[in-house]
Amino acid sequence: MLTSPPSFSDIKRAHQRIAQYIIETPVMTSKNIDEIAGCHIYFKCENFQKVGAFKMRGAANAIFSYRPEERVNGFACHSSGNHGQAVALAAKLAGSKAFVVMPKNATKVKVEAVKGYDAEVIFCEPNDQSRSQACQDVVDRTGAILIHPFDNYNIIAGQATAAKELIEETDDLDCIIAPVGGGGLAAGTSLIAHYLDPNMEVYLGEPEEVDDCYQSLKAGKIIPNKSSDTIADGLKTTIGQKNFDILKEHVKEVFTVSEQEIVDAMKLIWERMKIVIEPSCAVPFAAILKNPEAFKDKRVGVILTGGNVDLTKLPF
C-alpha cells in the first residue's frame, strides 16, 4: 500500500491494475453548452462508470492492491453511497465481502445498490464522528480491512485515472475542474494534471453549504464543516488530511456555488446533453457558469462524477 502521495508511476500502475474492472468512460461535448458557458467544455462521463460513479476506480485500486490471502476477512468502509457501492462491487470481484456503514439519511437508491452487490449495510447517525466510529466497530468485530473513502493514497491514485484518461483523450486542455468533498478525486486530479502538464490550471467546485475545502485552503489548515445541509450528498464530508496536503500544492482556486446554482446546472445538463447526473456531479459545471471570466474561451475538462439519482426525489 502507498505510504506517500502517488507518483506518476504509481498512477500508471493503478491504471493498469484496475483496467479490467472499470470502463474507460467517454468524453462528451455540447456546442449548446459551450455557447451558454462561453468556453469549450470536455465532460469526462464517470456517470457511465461501473456503480454509476468514479468511485469504482479508487476502490478497485485499493482492494486489488491486497494479496488474495489478505482479503479473507473482507473490507469495511463508510459512505453516503457511491464509495460503498464501489467497495461492495470491488470486494465481490476480488472474491471477498464488504461491510458498508451508511448514514441513516442516505438515499434509498444508493442503499439498495450497495445491498445489491451483496454487502452488509450498517446504519449510523449522519455525521463524520458517527460514521468513523461505526466503521471502526465493524473493523474490530470482523477483522475487515478499512478502505477509507478518500484519505488513502491508493484511493487517490485510483481516482486520478479518470483525469488521466480525460487529459490523454483531449488536446491541450487549459484547465480542469472537479468537485471536492473528502478530496480523493480532487487530489488525484490535481496530481495527474501536474504530472502530465504542469501548466494546466486545476480548479475545484464546492457547495457553499459545505465549503470546508475553500475555508481550509484560505486558512492554511483544515476547517471542518459546520453543516451537512446540501443537495450534493457526495460532497458533505470534510476534506481529508492527505488530500488537503496535496491540494495546497496544486490547486489554483476553489469556487463555491449555491444550492440553486447546483440544481440549475444539473437540470441544464439533463436537458441539453440528455444524460443523468447527480447533484454532486453538477457542482463543477455550476462553478463554470457562475465564474465565466475565469473560463472564458478556455478548453476546460470537467469530471462528471456520477449519476446515481433517486428519481422519486428530483429537485426539478
Automatic annotation (TrEMBL):
Residues 19-306 form the Tryptophan synthase beta chain-like PALP domain. Transmembrane segments: none annotated. One of its GO terms (molecular function) is L-serine ammonia-lyase activity. GO terms for biological process: D-serine biosynthetic process. It comes from the Bacteria. Pfam families: PALP (PF00291). Keywords: Lyase, Pyridoxal phosphate. Its cofactor is pyridoxal 5'-phosphate. Belongs to the serine/threonine dehydratase family. This is Threonine dehydratase. It comes from Ekhidna lutea. The lineage of its organism: Bacteria, Pseudomonadati, Bacteroidota, Cytophagia, Cytophagales.
